[in-house]
Design a protein that fits this description.
Two copies of one chain form a homodimer. Chain A has 155 residues and is an alpha+beta fold. Chain A has helices at residues 9-20, 26-33, 37-50, 83-91, 117-130; strands spanning 53-60, 69-77, 96-102, 108-114, 134-148. Chain A has two domains: 9-50, Arc Repressor Mutant, subunit A (Orthogonal Bundle), CATH 1.10.10; 62-142, Lrp/AsnC effector binding domain/regulation of amino acid metabolism (RAM) domain (Alpha-Beta Plaits). In chain A, strands 3-4-2-5 form a four-stranded antiparallel sheet, with helices on one face. In chain A, helix 2 packs across helix 3. Chain A binds a DNA duplex (17 and 17 nucleotides) through helix 3. Chains A, B: It comes from Filimonas effusa.
DNA sequence: ATTGAAAGAGTCTCAGT
DNA sequence: ACTGAGACTCTTTCAAT
């Protein structure tokens, strides 16, 4: 349940703009949104205090860094009560960048970023097989990312 | 295939640090990595020119903004040649934040961020049903995100 | 709540090493 | 290739509205 935050259109505009580009200066963002740089500063400070804004992250080109393979792994557990212990083991594999506990076809759903198919194979056959509680897995290898973008927070 | 970039340990350390926190000053990051702020500056400029660093993005708390539901949608296509036209239609749905063309169980795999289960139902039953070429879909609703983190680029 | 201006902090350039 | 210092830009604070 979202707490009542009382954000207005300007707050959402700032969030939307900076989700895409957090480097823009307050003065420039103010110009774009027709307020002063000081107002942008006040709003961002408020959003940070509210916990809505958590920080900024560098956006990198993973392919250029040699991470050519993105895959998703659907995980079937022997018992769903094993969730926490399996999650703890999966966290130890650095190539697993995200793990969700899900309803539907799988019990858990993981995203993996790795250098090549050989490394993916190693993770699937050697690392995952060792973890007690995993019944079986299904792998989806991403052949292409059609798009990746931020959610639209402006009505 | 990754082009030969000739990045050294310091480059990777800078990337690793700033993937998590891009707000740190060059002086502070320099202290942490035992070089001058000027050196950090030179390296980041180089990484930007190489295209490895693409920019910085605001990190926000989606739950606080009222986006309580994250789901994954596996999509089966009638014919895999319909990929581009279906992708084009899916891009028009702003709640779909990511779309991958995949091998494995599904033809395409989407991630959705929405306000509540009612909105998810609307997307699944009204918006996706209208798109020609989708045979059927399978939905995984995230009950909990165990973790989400950046890939480890340091050897 | 917004603004503009002053103070403080960070970035960027460059000459020296 | 790294450093430190100066010039420049941006952030932050604050008094006025």
């Amino acid at each position: 349940m979202a707490v009542k935050l009382n954000l207005d259109k300007l707050d959402f505009q700032i969030i939307q703009e900076m989700m895409e580009n957090a480097e823009i200066s307050y003065a420039d963002l103010g110009k774009k949104l027709f307020v002063s740089g000081g107002t942008i500063h006040v709003r961002i400070k408020k959003l940070q205090e509210l916990g809505v804004v958590k920080g900024t992250k560098l956006s990198v080109d993973l392919k250029l860094l040699g991470y050519d393979v993105i895959a998703f792994i659907g995980i079937f557990l022997e018992k769903s009560s094993l969730y926490d212990t399996v999650a703890k083991e999966l966290r130890k594999i650095p190539e697993i960048v995200r793990l969700n506990y899900t309803t539907g076809n799988y019990s858990m759903f993981a995203e993996v970023v790795c250098k090549d198919i050989q490394q993916l194979r190693y993770i699937l056959h050697d690392e995952l097989q060792k973890i007690k509680g995993i019944e079986r897995t299904e792998t989806l290898i991403s052949l292409e990312e059609s798009f990746a973008r931020n959610v639209l927070v402006i009505s």
